[in-house]
## 1
Amino acid sequence: MAQLWGGRFTKETDQLVYNFNASISFDKKFYKQDMQGSMAHARMLAKQGILTEEELERILEGIQGILADVENGKLEISDRYEDIHSFVEANLIERIGDPGKKLHTGRSRNDQVALDMKLYVREEVQAADALVRELLEVLLRLMEEHTGTVMPGFTHLQKAQPITLAHHLGAYFEMFRRDRERLSDLYDRMNDCPLGAGALAGTTYPLDREYTAELLGFRGPTRNSMDSVSDRDYLIELLSALSTIMMHLSRFSEEIIIWNTNEYQFVEMDDAYSTGSSIMPQKKNPDIAELVRGKTGRVYGALVSLLTTMKGLPLAYNKDMQEDKELTFDAIDTVKGCLALFRGMLDTMKFNGQKMADSARNGFTNATDAADYLVNHGVPFRDAHGIIGRLVLFCIERGKAIEELSMEELKGISPVFEKDLYEAVSLKTCVDKRETLGAPGEKAMEREIALSREWLEAHPAI
């Protein structure tokens, strides 16, 4: 067992205890970040005269050699080592001797792991942001293609008013746009370097923390050494942002699942993103949408788990905090996978515009516009509401839509109705006359699409 702290102890750690305590099985995921941080730390030590230039050169060459050997498969990160830090340091000492023993000067595993996690998460936030942006591009393309595709808008899963598919998809564009803003906010807030905080109280060595932060691309060093090693707020923020992304994906998936049913037939899933049944040959199941919906709970669980882990911890570092890694790694991988698959599913999906329009027409989504027609002809709104309620009941009893009634039938409900009602309650009229900011009218949507395109171009990446 390769350990960095054995001097204090007179007997070997029990194997079960060692295995329970070790983190190499999962913290090897940020081996690149650990070596990146070590090289920056070594450069700073040399700048401060703590290492000689010759020692620095040997340390850098040694670490770069370890990195190359890991990546080409010559060197395995094995469970012989307690964690990724001991793996790097032990191999460095084996390769270059005494200079390797000086690398840990002025550093603790507490600030080292805090740095590694921040470096890793910083890259993953950028990767998640790029995937959300790709999804927004697909949404925007579909919005541009479907400004004239009429469909029912729903409340309580009941058909409510006619909208367009572009308008419906635009609601999800807004959700995922906010997701990118949350990731950007998180990236900015977490971008301070904890290296140099030591175990909890800094160090007596004359470290230049500003220089280390600059080398690693941080805004600057963290401000309090105790907070530096015990802060997991940025991970909680990350898991919250990832949970919100999954909530949006899950809501969208739920609608796609409903739209894909035989009862709706609004969408046709591409074969590449569907599966069949082992017993029912007619089935084409929306498994990707269902799995995305299901995996949402997995990401929620990571957030609740970390909140629960942190809620009772005194300052500063506690071993409980090691529990942050596996669940965060899993949540990141889950969300990235869901985003990539969902984008592909949406990009290849076919929309049945005729089915959508028929559903809007047969669901009396133009009833509000019929009431507005009466109001515009002098009928008080409350009376108009009652008249249209009777009109809808009349239609239901006869299996007709409002616009399918004869003028005689309409006047039997209210003498105020005239022939211009047919134009007033046509689905196109109902949608296009709604032109206020954020409404589904074609002109309003064209303005919104232009603004959305402008926003995407102004925010290419974090």
## 2
Amino acid sequence: MTAPSLHLVVPGPLDQRTGGYFYDARMAEGLRRRGWRVTVHSLDGRFPDADETARTSMAAALAAIPEGATALVDGLALGGLPEPVAAERRRLRILALVHHPLSDETGLPPEVRDRLAGSERRALAAAHGVIVTSRFTARGLGRFGVDAGRVKVVEPGTDRPPGGAVDQVAGAPPRLLSVGAVVPRKGHDVLVRALARIAHLPWECDCAGSLERDPGHAVRVLAAVESQGLADRVRFAGECDPVTLAALYAESALFVLASHYEGYGMVLAEALAHGLPIVSTTGGAIPETVPPEAAVLVPPGDDAALAAALAPLLAGSDREARRQSGAERRAVLAAAARRHAAALPGWDDAAAAFAEALTALARRDDRSGTVGRGISR
């Protein structure tokens, strides 16, 4: 029997170092290990607020896919381009992969947010089915008119790191780690303001993630670090390869993510897998990704609350008041993180669930379309 096949359509190269691209790449890799034929179509142009190059590239990519085949289009591309999706939906089985709705991105001008919301609604209406990475995102698709029967949830997998986290070298300040591209949604500006509030406490902070995705915002964040007098304590490593990132996780005492919104939060699951206590926000799916016993969560955008959450985890001991030291508090959260991490799915588990979701959605009866049922063979 011919192996099942899938055409994966993504904006730009698949090897970009963001959570969404990493998910897409790991799923493609997992499907291939399971015997699938996966063809990746990398689109040119600007996304998600698509330009003419993007429109032309999407139309050409879909037109080149054989009739009756299944095309899975990453939501970063699909949401801004409903027209080519609608044009090909009777010839192809088009599925959407939504990490989070485009209009939920932080910092969008109102007119762009409204345009993306309307565009994504039309694009999702044209898709035969949708895969999302969290139950939170699945629930949110109702506002786009997507019937729950057309949605499958496949959460990301998590790699099992060797050994455990190292809290700190004796005498060295605790190291904080934040992972994510320096864009408005990730809240680095909030983090810098929070760290300035607790500058009297011992800590160092490493921020790993691209500085190139929103250069103007990155410049403002770096300027804030300078103006707050934190340049010798807050380091921006830029995009890191997997080995470097794993070393940062292993050497850190605490993971902090000031994100305004996450559709799942893969870096938070990675932090749990590394046995790190977490300080983050209640933005989006974060409370459903991180167990309360392993983390302290505060409202997004509230630097005072973030500082108040961090301070007890960094403080020294107060034996006269019989208060736990920061290290002792971190140890309690870290133990809970390790317990929770033991139950997280691996990437092989995620790939198996992804294959099942693709097959189920591709076989779903859709009387408005004319393509044949099932994964192409």
## 3
Amino acid sequence: MLSKYYHLKKNSIEETKVDIDAFISTLEIKLREKYKDVKIEQTFPGGTLGIFFELHINGKRKFVKTHQYGIEYKENLIKEIEIMSVVYSDIIEIERVDIEINGRQLVFMIMDYLFPYNYSIDFYEVKKCINNYQRKLATKNIEVKYCFRDVIEAGKESLEILYADSFLKKDIYLHCRESLQRIMEKRYLEVVNHGDLSNINIMYTEKQIPIVIDWEDSLYAFQEYDYLYWLTFFSQRKYYSSSLLENNGIHKIWGTDVMVLITIVKSEMSYRNESYKNNRISFQNRINEIYNMIR
């Protein structure tokens, strides 16, 4: 979330334009130095910061990810390669390739092709994924760019913007301010979290082993952060109940406050990029749904 949040604030569209054709042709030339048969089959729709390709190397299907121009985007991908190598190198092949294109140094991550899950992902499977990567990352000295304090600061700014532009009424605005204040007073141990855990970021190998991708938003936060973040997505509303958080070992008020904080930031990002125009419910009602879990 945070890398996209800062990208939207920066709004430097011209700086991040890339030459896709140059990326493809230069990558093919570079890989032919090592592999006999190299073919880039297609490109995928890019995310906010990433550019993606499907690649065949010696008949084996691969997935390629590179980044938009900008040192911060390059550093994010380097960190993603490091994290995925720690967590998943015993399951899939992950390779880093550095290439100069149009006078700029870019990093490419090449890994085994992964597949979306054909069924609904439930919260038991999500928690299992989180426990797996947090356990492995705890054994390494992984340094990441962001921390939970950055989320709090973003939330404070986003809340004021949403209220000033009339997306929130005064009563819910004041309620949100109380939540942010409680969060700032809380003390917690920090571990490495994914930072943007959604269903689409959980992919699967041919043997149906889950692999969590897109670590550009990784951050230091408390252990339950990724689970609470996952719950803030619209598709997870079906799990909401008064006992949801406590049944998963999370204090009800603390968990609700954190979910509200995350939703505030995501709402302001949606406002900034205008995707909110397709929302089925308002920001106000979305936040109220979360508060209703403690009522």
